[in-house]
Structures are given as structure tokens and as C-alpha cells.
From TrEMBL:
Top EC class of this enzyme: lyase
InterPro entries linked: dTDP_Gluc_deHydtase, NAD(P)-bd_dom, NAD(P)-bd_dom_sf, Sc_DH/Rdtase_CS
Catalytic activity: dTDP-alpha-D-glucose = dTDP-4-dehydro-6-deoxy-alpha-D-glucose + H2O
PROSITE patterns noted in UniProt: ADH_SHORT
Domain of life: Bacteria
Name recorded for this polypeptide: dTDP-glucose 4,6-dehydratase
Source organism (scientific name): Paenibacillus lycopersici
Keyword Lyase: yes
GO molecular function: dTDP-glucose 4,6-dehydratase activity
Pfam families from the UniProt entry: GDP_Man_Dehyd (PF16363)
Amino acid sequence: MKILITGGAGFIGSNFVHYMRGKHPSYDILNVDALTYAGNITNLDGLTEQGNGNYRFVRGDIRDRAAMEPLFQAGLDAVINFAAESHVDRSISQPDIFVTTNVVGAHTLLELAKTYGVGKFVQISTDEVYGTLGPAGLFTESSPLAPNSPYSASKASADLLARAYHETYGMDVNITRCSNNYGPYQFPEKLIPLMISHALQDKPLPLYGDGLNVRDWLYVADHCSAIDLVLHHGKAGEVYNIGGRNERTNTQVVTTILEALGKPASLIAHVRDRPGHDRRYAIDADKIRTELGWKPEFPYERGIRATIEWYVANAEWMKRIETGAYRSMNDAAAAGDKERDES
């Protein structure tokens, strides 16, 4: 297969690229990322070296049809769209970029996939499109869309576009909606890496509100295996929820991190809650389990331990982000790729 992976220098995208290179080494993988603030070329270390003839990285913006079209003209079997602005806090202060990237960008890819006859299009979405749950119940694929932030609204809009391209044009489209991911390479604005970073530096750990918001935590490698199944066996037009059935309050997550690092609970600093903060997410993943045979391999206790150990062992990776040094590394690597392409 020849696969275009967009957003492949971000957290989940880079993990998926590594997963696919290990699981399907004969596949041709074209990795496109705009290398915005959340993209990190060092997430792809070991893949960008010369000699990987069936792997290529291109710096590009999915909103730019002129830049994307040549990639489709070469022929593709599948597109997996991870590219998105994803931080809820940023969507509250800067909603415009979320609409253009998450909606206009997804539409650009769908239109090109239709034009050039791409065999499969997988739109990577989120459980946040469903809104919030009470103390009981689970999100299913038939739950109504009720997004509560500009981020989740933009992802819901992209999902509806993907669905429309299946219904109107007969494209083989799947939508996956996952619960909160955690694991290596996650940008340290998100809860788990942020709290690990602060704890390691003995800085206060900012926890929104009362800390009792509940999320269903999914280790990123399990998410990757689920997407792989959807890519190869997903039924056209179907939505697949992907969840870990690991519900934890934010306080429980932070407490686990502090205990693992031997830090005191006194580091927790409750801060003003963000606007529209959903209270609880929880995924019913029975459909992908029964229809595609997926099951997660990482229970929460194993996954969170592996995650904490990764960030401790990769302190330099974290430091480059905190100092901004990774941005110049992105620019240098992208310039090198461009020179090789032109030669």
C-alpha cells in the first residue's frame, strides 16, 4: 500500500508512523506535517534517515491544495488524516485556526481524495464531539454530536464532511473517535506530560477546578493498532469508537504521577476552571471489538508507568520543547528534505 499520513510529526501521528513502519515495513508511507508549534521532527528520529526508500517526509499544510495536489497525483491507496489543532484551551482564545485547519484542511484532503480516486480515507476524530456525560453512561457511535468547545465543534464539522463524501460520492470513508490518548511524544501542554514536567522540576501542578473531571484514558499504541484495523478492514461509511475503558479523574491521574516520581501531593495547585469544561467522557468500544477484533493491550497501570518512564528517560526531548530549540530543528530538517527533493 501507498499511504499518506497527515499530521505525522505530532503526538498520535508520529506514534502511528512508527507503528506502521514496524508492522508493515513494505508499505510506502508519505508523511506530511506543517510543523506548527505542536509538530516535532525529532518524534520521527530513525525514520528520516536516507536509505528508507519507502518512507518520505514532506513539510506541508493540508489547507493548501496547490501543495497537497502533487502528493495525490502520484497515486495513493489511503489517506489517514491526523492533522489538526487539538488543544481545547487554544481553541477558546484562537478559534479561527481550528476552523481553517480542522474543517477547511479536512475538506481539502477529501476533495483531493475524491478527485484522484484514493481507495480509503480515515478521518481521525475525538470523543469530544459527543459533548459531555453525566455520572453514568457511555458514548456510542449513535450518540448525538453535541460539541462544547470550538475545538470539538471543528472536529465534528470535519466528521460530517467525511460522512457526506461517503454518502454523496460513494467514497470509502471511516471516522474513528478516540478517548484521551497518552504516551510518548505528547506535547507538554496536555495534562499528563505537563504534570510530569512540572513534578520533575518541583513546580506547582496546575489542576483545573475541583480536579474531578473524568476521562477515559487510552494508551497511544492501542489507538494505533485500532486505526490499523480500521484502515484494512473498516466497513465503508462506518464510525468506530476507540476507548480504553480506563476512567480516571484528573486528580487520580496527577496523584499517580506524583507517587511514581516520589513527589508530594502539596505540589497540586487548583486553578480556575476553563470555560465549557466537559465533566466526563467515556467510550463504548464494543463495535470495533466485535466487528474488527480489536482489544487494547495496555491496561492503564502499565501504560501510565511506561509513559512516566519515557518522559523521565527523554528529559532532553522535553527540554528542547520548553526552550523552543525544537523549532529550529524542525526548520533545519524540513530544509534538508527540500534540498534532497530538488536534487
